[in-house]
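Need residues for this backbone.
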């Protein structure tokens, strides 16, 4: 194992240690999505999936 891999592993562990409390706070205080918010996500996603399926069927 060379020094680059060791340094990368140490940096990754340090990032997780420093980001964990902020992520925990953000998840606890984030706004909850309503059904309208979810439909605004699901409808375009379904349209893209349908379009890709149509393209696959045309081949």
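Answer:
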């Amino acid at each position: 194992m060379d020094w680059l891999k060791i340094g990368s592993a140490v940096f990754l562990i340090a990032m997780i240690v420093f980001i964990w409390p902020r992520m925990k706070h953000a998840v606890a205080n984030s706004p909850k999505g309503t059904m309208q918010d979810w439909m605004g996500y699901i409808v375009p996603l379904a349209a893209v999936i349908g379009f890709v399926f149509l393209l696959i069927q045309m081949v």
